Amino acid sequence: MNLTTAIQKLKEKGYKHTKQRERLLEIFVSQDQFIAAKEILKMIQKDFPSVSYDTIYRNLYLLTDEDLLEATELHGEKHFRLACNSSGHHHHFICTICGSTKAIEFCPMNAIHDKLGGYQVVNHKFEIFGVCPQCH
Fold first, then answer.
1. Banded model confidence at residue 131, pLDDT cuts 50, 70, 90
2. I need a labelling partner for 102 at 20 to 30 A (CA). Which of 74, 112, 132, 133 fits?
3. How far apart are CA 53 and CA 57, in angstroms?
4. Which of 58, 51, 49 is nearest to 80 (CA)?
């Protein structure tokens, strides 16, 4: 996803185009990895010194709710990245050092589903954590 597409999606859903929100999206477009919320705040404050942690968090969750960002937890804190462009249902390998991701184009749920006789699955999320070749 590029910046123009992300901004257009927000406009279509009735959200205002703000400079802070645009800068937030620029950060994610430029980096293909999960980024800690506190790191995002530091980057944003270079351009908007008075922006608060609450404002950043509200926008991160808004963008996640609108499927523009994906969220995960690494090292006990929330990390975010631009929503994946992969087509169809998939999952991710996430590097615990740099936050980079690799799409996994199959669903492990298919193998697990048979073991859940009588249970109705309404949603699921699989993430595999490890170290990417660049960090190894």
1. very high
2. 112
3. 6
4. 58
- CATH placement of domain 3-82: 1.10.10.10
Distance CA 136, CA 134 (A): 6
Sign of CA dihedral 58, 61, 65, 70: positive
User: Structural domain boundaries of the chain?
Assistant: 3-82, 91-130
Instruction: State the Cα–Cα distance between residues 72 and 135, nearest whole angstrom.
Output: 19
**Alpha carbon distance 27, 93 (integer Å):** 21
From CA 119, how far away is CA 92, in angstroms rounded? Answer: 25
40-96 residue pLDDT tens: 999 999 999 999 999 999 999 999 999 899 999 888 899 999 988 766 678 889 999
